[in-house]
Fold this sequence. Notes:
Blueprint: H1 15-18, H2 21-37, H3 44-60, H4 64-70, H5 75-87, E1 92-95, E2 98-101, H6 102-128, H7 134-140, H8 145-174, H9 185-212, H10 233-239, H11 241-256
Antiparallel strand pairs: 1-2
Amino acid sequence: MGAGAHPLYRHADSAVHRMPAETKIVCLVAFVLAVVAAPRELVWPYVVFGVIVVAVWWAARIPPRWALPRMLIEAPFVVLAVLLPFAEGGERIDVAGVSLSVTGLHAAWGIVAKGTLGVAAALTVAATTPAAELPAALSRLRVPAVMTSVLVLMIRYVDLLVAEAGRMRIARISRGDSPRALHQAGAVAKGVGALFLRSYERGERVHLAMLSRGFDGRAPDLAAVGAPPRARTGQWAVALLPAAAAVVVATAAWAVR
Length: 257
């Protein structure tokens, strides 16, 4: 698992890339909590949150044209949010001749705004943090060893699973399958089940192989073999600036609400 092995990593030389991974993880969690805690009835806090994210993108040399297409993973939640103004009850308001729920509008805005900011923040950390730095960073943050191992193995094998799913799809098409035809839904479901079983069996084999080589369930501190050293106080102070700004914005939003 080399540096930048995961597909979301963007190679660049910036101050954000050089920050220790543990500082970026803590900043991400604090920023997301501040965004979630902000009142959904207001708009301006989320505009400021967006400015903070864009500022970090600028510092990390992440162009919006690279980041925005990768944020489409939240599309299913946006579809759900669009339905809420029609499905919720309570006070209603007419918009262009359509009766919409006020509560549903607030809920939809909250889902879209908070989800978009959360995805953007997570993508920023992924784009600036090599996968090889994650085990040491998580163990330094006292994350349980089981969770660290699962996350590291997931990053290591996700590309392999995607490639295998692609090979299975090509095999179905070469045998006359039409993926867009409704009557092939059963074959697609069976393929998903087969992929799950193969992944489960591969996981068991990998785990047994690791145990046979002395793995005790703990991710080692990789500082001795090339991982960056522990974060210094000054690095913590600089890395947590976006999170601190987000906390101030969320607090101010509740104060003036």
